[in-house]
Amino acid sequence: MSQYAQQHQAINLSQGFPDFDGDDFLKQRVSHYINSGLNQYAPMTGLVQLREQIANKIDSQYGLEVCPDRQVTVTSGATEALFAAIMAVVKTGDEVVVLDPAYDSYDPAIRLAGGKAVHVALNDDFSINFDALRQACNARTRLLIINSPHNPSGATISYEDMLSLQSLVLEFDTLLLSDEVYEHIIFDGADHQSALRFSELAQRSFVVSSFGKTFHTTGWKVGYCVAPAELSTEFRKVHQYLTFSTSTPMQAAIADTLAEKPELWQNLPRFYQQKRDHLQQALAPSRLKLLPCRGTYFQVVDYSAISDLNELDFAKWLTREVKVAVIPISVFYQQPREQKLARLCFAKNESTLTQAAERLCQL
Ligand code: PMP
Ligand code: GLN
């Protein structure tokens, strides 16, 4: 869709990435480290100072002590961490439960590992359908994948639902892969319910995050995985031969930023809530129906008052004719859906959002 947006000179609210830059401090540190010669391989598990900063952040945020040496692994983006976690534990014939709509990288990784992805649709409000989830679990279920705050819906998993997930994981003796790349982008004063807050879950989970989201640097591809030592050992066997290690100057700069500028991630809820509110207010006069957005930088809209086109055709039409590119929600489902929803990325300057909303209000 980004290519299509470019081709039609549309405002690109499709692919999720900011149209503004990361903080100057971060960029200056990267160039400092490049110019001072930090340009060779980092250790396989990540620079020690970065792993320590990640462990500190987890302790301060989720009240869990993790060992930087044995439990934290720096990866080349969350995408690599998701892939390595799946490869590490899913064997031929294993089943993995995926909740649809789901981020697009889970299913191919499961299939490449020889596993079978069992897709369970979320409820219409994007909460977990526990009856359906329970029915999908059995003795072959090796892993359950969750994502909160959730791409594409902007929904979050509640404390109560995390407790129910914990019971289910224990009952079926499965592992959990918790995709928490939007952990710091959560609104209206809510707390992110990380799997790391739940002791039984933390003992059975790979928790994945991304500095691309946290520091507005999606092109740097630096993320990490936190898991118990035994799971991290298996994870690292895959990571070692997948990428081996991650960009050294980027890691050093991110470690400094976590240590010296914690306000950059601490202010993210307020920073993105302003953008969400700006977009919502600008779209209020439109005929789009806005669904609740509790986290992430995605706003889902229902366009059924405007068009009968299916989601893919609508997204393309909107890009070509209205010059605003969005993502159809149907692409995140395995089964075709009768719904008229589109995802708008609001990780954009307010002027970009205003201009896009003006166009959408004319429909
Ligand atoms: N999971 C989700 C839900 C995402 O939205 C993204 C960002 N595209 C990723 C994982 C991948 O993150 P990264 O860019 O760090 O690989
Ligand atoms: N996560 C981003 C999105 O959902 C983009 C990542 C990608 O394009 N693969 O739009």
Automatic annotation (TrEMBL):
A Pfam short name: Aminotran_1_2
A single MF term (Gene Ontology): kynurenine-oxoglutarate transaminase activity
Keywords: Aminotransferase, Pyridoxal phosphate, Transferase
Matches recorded under InterPro entries: Aminotransferase_I/II_large, Kynurenine-oxoglutarate_AT, PyrdxlP-dep_Trfase, PyrdxlP-dep_Trfase_major, PyrdxlP-dep_Trfase_small
Cofactor: pyridoxal 5'-phosphate
Gene3D superfamilies: Aspartate Aminotransferase, domain 1 (3.90.1150.10), Type I PLP-dependent aspartate aminotransferase-like (Major domain) (3.40.640.10)
Annotated GO CC locations: cytoplasm
Domain of life: Bacteria
Aminotransferase class I/classII large domain segment(s): 10-360
Family designation: Belongs to the class-I pyridoxal-phosphate-dependent aminotransferase family.
Protein name: Methionine aminotransferase
Source organism: Pleionea litopenaei
